[in-house]
Specification:
A hairpin with a 2-residue loop joins strand 1 and strand 2. By secondary structure, this protein is mainly α. The protein has a two-stranded antiparallel ribbon with strand order 1-2. The chain is built from 7 helices and 2 strands. It is globular, with a radius of gyration of 31 Å. About 3% of the residues have low confidence.
Length: 197
């Protein structure tokens, strides 16, 4: 499993555990991180928290109110409280990566969330996560700090490259046509002189 995928899984573990235990997320992160007391050591039984996992947890927590608002507003037929806790936290990570994450392509953020849902949640969760994150991606405003890349200037068409072969008129329903007859002639310089027959 790639390092960022492991980091997403680890961030999900922390967010889910904090929600189930009713514990503050950042306190649990400090406890689970390698700097915290007993966190990340083999004796504690929990894997270490990578820098990216900690960034995800902090980012989700920093934007949690807006993330939950987006999820509540656009999850058709589902309230945030009614969603399974795993799905809710997978969606929070996905929305954070789509809206505020740095350096993660949109497709990667969505597909990673779908993979987590497929591995850890119910049978219908991957489709639900995919649909909701794709919808939120469509609604995402363009970031002010990252203007759209300039479009290349339209180039003039090359007349030689786009020249079409002359169309011969069709005769009746027959699609096969005889090759046009050529008159014999002789070439003088670059000019063709046709002989009169």
């Amino acid at each position: 499993m790639p390092a960022r995928s492991k980091a997403r899984k680890r961030a999900l573990d922390i967010l889910y555990e904090a929600e189930i235990k009713g514990q503050p997320v950042l306190d649990l992160l400090a406890e689970r991180s390698a700097d915290g007391p007993g966190g990340g050591s083999p004796a504690s039984g929990s894997p270490p928290v990578s820098g990216y996992a900690a960034e995800l947890v902090r980012g989700v927590q920093a934007h949690r109110e807006r993330i939950d608002e987006l999820l509540s507003e656009h999850a058709q037929g589902w309230t945030l409280d009614r969603m399974p806790a795993v799905d809710r936290n997978i969606l929070r990570i996905g929305v954070y990566e789509l809206y505020w994450g740095s350096g993660v392509p949109d497709g990667v953020a969505i597909s990673e969330a779908v993979l987590l849902a497929r591995d850890l949640s119910t049978e219908g969760s991957p489709a639900f996560v995919n649909g909701l994150l794709a919808r939120l991606l469509e609604l995402r405003p363009e970031p002010d700090h990252c203007p759209a890349p300039p479009r290349p200037a339209p180039s003039l068409p090359n007349p030689r490259r786009h020249r079409r072969a002359p169309q011969l008129p069709r005769t009746g329903h027959n699609t096969r046509m005889a090759a046009p007859r050529r008159r014999p002639g002789k070439i003088v310089g670059t000019t063709l002189f046709l002989s009169q027959q």
